Amino acid sequence: MRAMFRSLAGTNYLIWAAGALVSNIGTWMQRTAQDWIVLTQLTQNNATAVGFVMALQFGPQLLLLPVTGWAADHLDRRRLLLATQGAMGALGLGLGLLTVTSAVQLWHVYAFALALGVAAAFDAPARQTFVSELVAGPNLSNAVALNSASFNAARLIGPAIAGLLTAAIGAGWVFLINAGTFGAVLLSLTLLRREQLYRTERAKRSPGSLIGGFRYVRRRPDILVILIMVFLIGTFGLNFPIFISTMSVSVFHQGAGEYGVLSSIMAIGSVAGALLSARRERPRVALLFAGAALFGVGCAITAVMPVYGLFALALILIGISAQTLMTTANGAIQLTTDPALRGRVMAIYMAIFMGGTPIGAPIVGWVADTFDPRWALGVGAASGFAAALVGELYLVRHRGMRMRFSGIRPHVTMKPRERLREGLEETEATATQAS
């Protein structure tokens, strides 16, 4: 148990984690309330509109990729986070005031989603790489996993609170509460002991530095395969606001409270997946590919559940598999990337992870509207199986490994003449050569 939470022994990481947890709870509250008012108050159960909001919110991750990665590598990350977190808090306040005064319209939500997306595009790579300044190298993988656990603990708590508050006092107050929670993370950034930060040398400003991350990734097939898998599942599989809201409203005919409960139940699996990842000293590559396959299985099972209760239980498997996949991918990339390029590489990772949403969300929303929400979950299942196939092909071609399944437990076998130590030893050697 102590090994699972070893990163919290550092004062700076403990301060940061506490503030981030409070802020993340508020963020998930806002996301839940925002999707709900778009689906039920500003439109007539229009899943495409929800998908468009997601596209506006996550599109800047992709469009601003070269600039945001450069900023994370060249600017002071703590100060950058103070600016981005403050901006997102102000946007939550603005949307909340419009909503409680009954002035909000659909185009307002679109505009705030786009502005929030711009702030989040700068925030994400800085926040991901800032962890390496809070903990020493040996504990970085654990800190990444605990960050994911914190994020998903917030996803467990936030939607449930949002559902209750939306039904009791309205979505506008949920937005205002979210604005207040940003004070926690701003306070934690202020309280950090700056003399104890593990600062790395900032990347030098030089011609071509904006595209340095792309050149680095191009030389790293191990990172490329992870990015392809993350793109497939992030684009077509992680559209949970569409899956859950449309199934809740259109299929099971539930209200705001029950919708919030579904998001929280799925987060139980996500927290479990993140904590299991935190126990491991290093990310396991084979686990990444197994997680993709199990995600496909989970979406397929969830799509055919006949009643609300069974649907809710099936979401736990989706949560476990998705979080195992994403935590392992995040840790593998951060641990094996040249520190001078980590911000730009993580910006590419976040752009592919979140930036695929503008492509996938409208498509998945259209499928839910045109056919059925269950078919939208089928798209998610296909993305998981496709990502697992990509991973299997990489294992066979580059590492002489094959993955088979007994029940739901993955097993990896290796050709004797090409036997490699499982883990990231080969990846780490590649990283050293590339740097």
UniProtKB/TrEMBL annotation:
The keyword Chaperone does not apply. Keywords: Cell membrane, Membrane, Transmembrane, Transmembrane helix, Transport. It is a multi-pass membrane protein. Residues 12-399 form the Major facilitator superfamily (MFS) profile domain. The chain crosses the membrane at residues 12-29, 49-68, 171-192, 223-244, 259-278, 285-305, 311-333, 345-368, 374-396. It is found in: Cell membrane. GO terms for cellular component: plasma membrane. GO terms for molecular function: transmembrane transporter activity. The keyword 4Fe-4S does not apply. Gene3D superfamilies: MFS general substrate transporter like domains. SUPFAM superfamilies: MFS general substrate transporter. Its main location: membrane. It comes from the Bacteria. InterPro entries: MFS_dom (IPR020846), MFS_trans_sf (IPR036259), TM_effector (IPR010290). PANTHER family: INTEGRAL MEMBRANE EFFLUX PROTEIN-RELATED (PTHR23513), STAPHYLOFERRIN A TRANSPORTER (PTHR23513:SF11). This is Integral membrane efflux protein.
